[in-house]
From TrEMBL, chain A:
One Pfam entry name: Aldedh
Family: Belongs to the aldehyde dehydrogenase family.
InterPro entries, A to Z: Ald_DH/histidinol_DH (IPR016161), Ald_DH_C (IPR016163), Ald_DH_CS_CYS (IPR016160), Ald_DH_CS_GLU (IPR029510), Ald_DH_N (IPR016162), Aldehyde_DH_dom (IPR015590)
Keywords: Oxidoreductase
Keyword Oxidoreductase: yes
Gene3D superfamilies assigned to the protein according to its UniProt record, in alphabetical order: Aldehyde Dehydrogenase, Chain A, domain 1 (3.40.605.10), Aldehyde Dehydrogenase, Chain A, domain 2 (3.40.309.10)
Official protein name in the record: Aldehyde dehydrogenase family protein
SUPFAM superfamilies linked to this entry: ALDH-like (SSF53720)
Residues annotated as domain Aldehyde dehydrogenase: 34-493
Organism: Spiribacter onubensis
Annotated catalytic residues: 262
UniProtKB/TrEMBL annotation, chain B:
Name listed for the protein in its UniProt record: DUF779 domain-containing protein
InterPro entries per the UniProt record, alphabetical: DUF779
Cited Pfam families: DUF779
Organism: Spiribacter onubensis
Length: 506, 117
């Protein structure tokens, strides 16, 4: 089926024509009254306007967050958990609407938002509602009279800067653990994809005490800097790219606060020849694993954008893999059959096209796609790229930089040592995939690849219960999993003597 | 900082935008980003905003403003010349031109073939 465009008469969801910032539980116009246009990548048409906020708006949001933080931090974990569960329930009741809104905002296929983005976000709130209640501090009996108590405390007010590739899911990854741990938030959505988060916040606004979650929109240079460099935040979390990551660390160093950074990767997806040892479900699964580079139009930090295929079955594997890629359905993101929709923005489209150009210049062979996609009709103003397969060498730029498009670069390897050498020959270390029927092979590869997550005989699963984050230049810290609560908590140590005798030193 | 063999240049449209931004923000600096989202995009900041590190590589000036790239990234990009262009866009990050509805874009041309593979 094809969902009607949001805003049309048959649509199941509509956006407002203009949004405010969500500050202290209220919708507020930006202080200096400036807005910017927000287009949908599906057609390229503007569908709403968004506050172009500045430092003054960030300060208002921080005022609201600081006013709320003591009460929120002291709210019993059972109550905080109930609120997170209510947010999840509200999202579940409105799943279809949110999924269509997200597809319209970002260009990703509604097939994906219905089955992955939004259900994962819902589960994420439930996961952190659960783990915060199970979390306990520790008690160490140091000797008969001396006890060390370790108690978790919230950081206070945190700043979070959200990327545009999974606007709602990436916001949830940051919001859920921070709220669970008792922090108040000032969040800045990406300027390419602000509206779906605002629609979601509108939907859940009545569930949260005023000031606990504040959303301020605008550009990095104006609102982002005012937030990240602000002495009134206790931590900043950012997902994006390396130069901005450095700038954010630099700002954080001025205030001596912690950062978590997720800065992308160039993830290898490694296929050993025993994938084809039998003509069975596992063979099919490995081919699907190859095609995963096209998920979310390749706009995933862990896009398996380098495929390493063992020489001994390279020809057979690539024949079948290219057949699979050829059957990917592209086009209207609101069609539930569409697998690859629109790139999120015009500049993203242009960047991908620049990489298709350099791949050819470097001498890589185009095995599939390689061009902008012209879907026709209303979609012609949108930003579409053909799923593309390059064949080349790991030293090429298309093997070394995250293109963030539906583009995979394929090369071959001889044996496990060779595969590890190529897999690790990258500046990044966020994700990786290993495909083999041998437990020995998958374990050795999994331990040998320098990346925060090695999907083994699977790819692109993002459960709340598994830690996600990078080695090398891919960033600092982790997201997801109970252990992420620690990124949003202080440790209070009470070191207590129950002895009534003096130490005898003075 | 080390001197580079790869070169950087700017299109006339990019040079015009650099001049506009300099008028508004004073001296500028460019740093080539990497990684996801808006990685691979050049970031433009007020000159004193971004700390150039000991391992950054100076590639040259564009529109009279210095352009740097991280040292490890430079090693992997050294076989290409960079041509900084400008397009309509909404690129995130903290780059100064984004609020103008414009985005610098790095185009490349191969100047030597990488050695091995």
């Amino acid at each position: 089926m094809i969902y009607a465009n949001p805003g049309s008469s048959d649509a199941i969801v509509s956006f407002k024509s203009q949004y405010g910032n969500f500050i202290g539980g209220e919708w507020k116009a930006p202080v200096d009254g400036e807005y910017f246009d927000n287009p949908t990548p599906v057609t390229g048409q503007t569908f709403c306007s968004i506050p172009r906020s500045k430092a003054a708006d960030i300060e208002l949001a921080l005022d609201a967050a600081h006013a709320a933080k003591d009460a929120w931090g002291k709210t019993p974990v059972a109550e905080r958990a109930v609120i997170l569960n209510r947010i999840a329930d509200r999202m579940e009741e409105n799943l279809e609407k949110i999924a269509v809104a997200e597809a319209w905002e970002n260009g990703k296929p509604v097939r994906e938002t219905l089955a992955a983005d939004i259900p994962l976000a819902i589960d994420h709130f439930r996961y952190f509602a659960g783990v915060i209640r199970a979390q306990e501090g520790t008690i160490g009996e140091l000797d008969n009279d001396t006890v060390a108590y370790h108690i978790h405390e919230p950081l206070g007010v945190v700043g979070q800067i959200i990327p545009w590739n999974f606007p709602i899911l990436m916001a949830t990854w940051k919001i859920a653990p921070a709220l669970a741990a008792g922090n108040c938030i000032v969040l800045k959505p990406a300027e390419q994809t602000p509206a779906s988060i605002l629609l979601l916040v509108e939907m859940i606004a009545d569930l949260l005490p005023a000031g606990v979650l504040n959303v301020v929109n605008g550009f990095g240079a104006e609102a982002g800097k005012a937030l990240a460099s602000n002495p009134r935040i206790a931590k900043v979390a950012f997902t994006g790219e390396t130069t901005t990551g450095r700038l954010i660390m630099q700002y954080a160093s001025e205030n001596i606060i912690p950062v978590t950074l997720e800065l992308g990767g160039k993830s290898p997806n490694v296929f050993f020849d025993d994938c084809f040892a039998a003509d069975d479900g596992f063979r099919e699964k490995s081919l699907e694993g190859f095609a995963m580079f096209a998920l979310n139009q390749g706009e995933v930090c862990t896009c398996p954008s380098r495929a390493l295929v063992q020489k001994s079955f390279y020809g057979d594997f690539m024949d079948a893999a290219l057949d699979r890629v050829g059957r990917i359905k592209t086009g209207n993101p609101l069609d539930t059959d569409t697998m690859v929709g629109a790139q999120a923005s015009r500049d993203q489209l242009e960047k991908i096209l620049a990489y298709l150009d350099i791949g050819r210049q470097e001498g890589a062979k185009v095995l599939a796609g390689g061009e902008q996609l012209e879907p026709g009709g209303d979609l012609s103003g949108g930003f579409y790229v053909q799923p593309t397969v390059f064949e080349g060498r790991n030293s090429m730029r298309i093997f070394q930089e995250e293109i963030f498009g539906p583009v995979v670069s394929v090369t071959d390897f001889s044996d496990m040592d060779n595969a590890l050498e190529i897999a690790n020959d990258t500046l990044y270390g966020l994700g990786a995939g290993v495909w083999s029927r041998s437990a020995h092979t998958t374990y050795r590869m999994g331990r040998g690849i320098q990346a925060g997550r090695v999907w083994t005989n699977c790819y692109h699963l993002y459960p709340a219960h598994a830690a996600f984050g990078g080695y090398k230049q891919s960033g600092i810290g982790r997201e997801n999993h109970q252990m992420m609560l620690a990124h949003y908590q202080q440790t209070k140590n009470l070191l207590v003597s129950y002895s009534q005798a003096p130490m005898g030193l003075f | 900082m080390t001197e580079a063999t790869s070169q950087v240049s700017a299109t006339p449209a990019a040079e015009a935008l650099i001049a506009e931004l300099r008028e508004r923000h004073g001296p500028l600096v460019f740093h080539q980003s990497g990684g996801c989202c808006d990685g691979s995009a050049p970031m433009c900041y007020p000159r004193d905003e971004f700390r150039i590190g000991a391992h950054d590589v100076y590639l040259g000036d564009i529109g009279g403003e210095p352009f740097y790239i991280g040292g490890a990234q430079y090693e992997r990009w050294a076989h290409t010349n960079l041509i900084i262009d400008v397009i309509e866009g909404r690129g995130s990050g903290f780059s100064l031109e984004a609020p103008e509805g414009k985005r610098f874009l790095t185009r490349s041309e191969v100047c030597s073939i990488p050695a091995s593979g």
